[in-house]
UniProtKB/TrEMBL annotation:
Stated name of the protein: NAD(P)-dependent oxidoreductase
Residue span(s) of domain NAD-dependent epimerase/dehydratase: 3-218
InterPro entries the record matches: Epimerase_deHydtase (IPR001509), Lipid_A_modif_metabolic_enz (IPR050177), NAD(P)-bd_dom_sf (IPR036291)
Taxonomic classification: Bacteria, Bacillati, Actinomycetota, Actinomycetes, Micrococcales
Length: 294
């Protein structure tokens, strides 16, 4: 297929672009990075610079596509003014999706976020109702980032109601690659009391890229939402034990697939997309959270 991927030069975008190329797709990558004008390497993606908050530029990159993978976004709410996060993320999603609908694109893969339930950056903090968290968990987003991701999923619902497009929203957990495993996850591996709202969850960028390819190629009708998280937790802790130790009875513990379960369930993605995670923090770090010797 001819696949447009937005946010192609970010951590997720790079991994997904390569995975789509490896799967045999013709990929047009777009981002805010300036293009180069040397000969393109054989087998690489074509590139077009575009500001997707501009409707005309969004339409220019989407035209002719069979599928769109929308990764582009300001990735969290604390590094930019709130109105910039909200405007950028929501308008980019709206413009790219509108272009896809108008041009008759068959498949839209929307990269949403694990933050949609709302307990990641709230001004009035609260905890998940239960764990592992799944797609049925209630959503109460407060911050501008989670709100844009929630509204993005609602835009997908509207698109499938008014057109023949098929949409999948992926909610990745905290994305890691070989360059940041130690920095991001090392402290939690050494000490489970280093808490995070996602309950010791994470996802490898390349496992996420595999899920994105499956979503792009999927024939699932309508709009489906999938969490994508590694099946094990950061540090390989006994999940039931650490959940009770640090949260008491404030979070209901539901059935676990494994002792060292993730705090986010990807069972739906494994069942409906056929996604099989292949990588773990253990492939990069030792039991002390230090990078393995190369």
């Amino acid at each position: 297929m001819k696949v447009v991927i937005t946010g192609a030069h970010g951590k997720v975008g790079r991994a997904a672009t390569q995975a789509l190329l490896d799967a045999g797709h013709d990929v047009l990558a777009t981002d805010l990075s300036r293009p180069g004008f040397e000969r393109r390497e054989e087998g690489s993606a074509r590139y077009m610079m575009a500001d997707l908050t501009d409707a005309g530029e969004a339409f220019a990159v989407v035209r002719g596509a069979d599928a769109v993978v929308h990764v582009a976004a300001i990735p969290e709410p604390t590094g930019n003014p709130a109105h910039v996060v909200f405007r950028t993320n929501l308008m980019a999603t709206f413009n790219v999706l509108e272009a896809a609908v108008r041009f008759g694109v068959k498949r839209f893969v929307n990269i949403s976020s694990e933050t949609v339930p709302g307990f990641f950056f709230p001004e009035r903090p609260f905890l998940p109702d239960y764990a592992p968290v799944d797609e049925l968990h209630p959503v109460h987003p407060q911050d501008p980032y989670a709100l844009t991701k929630h509204f993005g999923e609602q835009l997908m619902n509207a698109a499938v109601e008014r057109s023949d497009i098929r949409a999948i929203s992926i909610r990745p957990s905290w994305v890691q690659n070989e360059g940041n495993y130690e920095q991001n996850l090392g402290p939690q591996i050494r000490d489970a009391s280093v808490l995070s709202p996602n309950l010791w969850s994470y996802i490898d960028a390349y496992d996420l890229a595999d899920a994105i390819v499956l979503a792009t190629e999927s024939e699932l009708p309508g709009h489906e939402v999938f969490y994508i998280a590694s099946p094990d937790n950061v540090g390989g802790h006994d999940f039931a034990e650490v959940l009770h130790q640090y949260y008491g009875d404030k979070i209901e513990l539901r059935e676990l697939d494994r002792v060292d379960s993730s705090g986010i369930s990807s069972a739906k993605a494994q069942r409906m997309l056929g996604w099989t995670p292949k990588r773990s923090w253990r492939d990069y770090l030792d039991s002390d959270g230090r990078a393995l010797a190369k």
